[in-house]
Amino acid sequence: MNQEFNEYFNRQIKLWGQETQDSLQNKKVAIIGSGGLGCTLGIALGASGIGEFSFVDFDTVGVHNIHRQIGFKVGDDGKYKAEVLKDLMESRCPYVKVNAYKESFDEFAKRGLTFDLIIDATDNLPTRAAINEYCMKYNQPWIYGSVEEFHGQVCFFEKASYEAVFQINDRKPNGIACPIVMHIGSLQANLALRYLAGLEVKKDVLYYLSFDSEGILNTKKFNLPKA
Question: What does residue 157 show for φ and ψ, rounded to 5 degrees?
């Protein structure tokens, strides 16, 4: 790798060495959803040196999205989220390749592409159920994340089934605060980066984070049953 590469990732090379940093360039990640979680994930993981991303989202930016979807700005409304995020990531890090798929997950799954990791950044349960079904069928590790109001959940799924834990319906989420979206997205990114860098990651543990009425942050952990 060249001198510019080493300078860009200087702090991470100090963290885990040149070989591990170089290895991240060979990793491929699919992020399903390019909204609030997807923006945080893309910015964090793109700047960490993951080599290739595929963003899957058929939706366009709306003004009501921008407050919590930190990859977008006023003036982006009407543009495809996946394309805007692709341009942002490639402008921030010249060492990343980003593919934007303006389609549903069901359509994307038919492409038969392979990834080191799939990350859920959606906002609806039926799509998560489809991701879960696909990943279980192909023994594909994936990371789940969801947010609502001031709380959120994260889990690295390997052997457990999402549908065994959550009831699937088409319920729409309530209001959402911007910082909790970034917080949950950052936790997903941390799990992903540790896994892709070959560090230890505890699988099939659901983390639930919430603020109580006094603003105290509580974190609970639940071991999920293996499928």
Answer: -85, 130
Q: Which helix (H) or strand (E) holds 101?
A: strand 97-101
pLDDT tens digits along 29-77: 999 999 999 999 999 999 999 999 999 999 999 999 899 989 999 999 9
**What does R_g of the chain's alpha carbons equal in angstroms?**
17
* Token reading at 88: 């942002």
pTM value is: 0.94
Picking from 162, 192, 223, 226, the residue whose alpha carbon sits closest to that of residue 47 is 192
Inter-residue contact 51 to 24 (CB < 8 Å): yes
Locate 120 and state its tokens: 């859920």
pLDDT above 60 (res 168): no
Q: Look over the chain and give the mean of its residue pLDDT values, rounded to a whole number.
A: 93
C-alpha span between 35 and 49 (Å, rounded): 21
Mean of pLDDT values over 133-159: 94
**169 CB burial (10 A radius; 0-12, 13-18, 19+):** exposed
**Structural domains of the chain in order of their starting residue, each with its CATH number:** 3-223 (3.40.50.720)
